[in-house]
Amino acid sequence: MNTPSAHKTIFGNKGNVVKTNSYYRTWPHKSEITNTWNATNVEAHARKRRVLNNAFSDKALRGMEPFLVSNSE
Hints:
Layout: H1 4-11, H2 21-24, H3 42-55, H4 58-70
């Protein structure tokens, strides 16, 4: 992979890449903890992403801007 478009093709929503359980289960401190990075189940990952997508939407980020600006110094 040597271009940004290649990364999107391989790992994007329509990419045909499956995460292997053995690799992604070595990283969390407790193996039963699943987050968006180590979720190998497509449905579990999608559920977690939907929650995060709401938190990082344009509307949510713009709503936090006054707080971030006032606490940036």
